[in-house]
Structure formats: structure tokens, C-alpha cells
Amino acid sequence: MKNNEQKPDFLFDKNNYKILLIGIAVIAVGFILMSGGGSDDPKIFKEDIFNFRRIRLAPTLVLIGFGITIYSIFKKTETSK
User: Fold this and answer.
1) CA-CA distance, 48 to 41, in Å (whole number)?
2) Per 3-state DSSP, what percentage of the chain is helix, strand, and coil (rounded to 5)?
3) For 16-45, how does the pLDDT look when each residue is reduced to its tens digit (9 = 90+)?
């Protein structure tokens, strides 16, 4: 057993990874809300593709998720050296 063993240094802190995962989850929810709304028959037009959820809510969630992930990358880590 060596006394000189070093602990691996990670790029981010534990809190940064938590915030990053939250941002990725928000992006995934946004893309899930964007899906669907099409018609099975190409001769029939469905107005569901232009509803509030797909036009406003889902893209807003995706942009918020990107903002959260960018914040988690730029957030300073606490170094205790």
C-alpha cells in the first residue's frame, strides 16, 4: 500500500454533475413534448401540430435545458487545497 496514492482529479464537482444531469433531463422532456402531432393519413391535416405545447412550451424547455447545462459547465468548483 502506497502512501503517495493520489485521488483522481475530476473536471467538475459533484454539484456540477447534478446540475448537468438536470439540464439534460429538461432537454429530453422538451424533445418528448415536441414529438407527435402528425397525421397517419397524408390527405388529412391535423391542427395538433400547431398547438401551444409543440410551438411554445417544448422549445422553451429545450432552451432552458441548454441554459442549465451551460451554467453547470461554467459554475466554479470549490477546491479545498
Assistant:
1) 14
2) 60, 0, 40
3) 999 999 999 999 999 999 998 777 888 888
The DSSP call for residue 71 is H
- Residue where the block lists cell 417544448: 58
**CA gap 27, 14 in Å, rounded:** 20
Separation CA 47–CA 63 (nearest Å): 24
Report the C-alpha gap between 30 and 61 in whole angstroms: 5
Amino acid letter at 63?
L
- Alpha-carbon radius of gyration of the chain: 21
pTM (2 d.p.): 0.79
- Note whether 72 and 23 are within 8 A (CB): yes
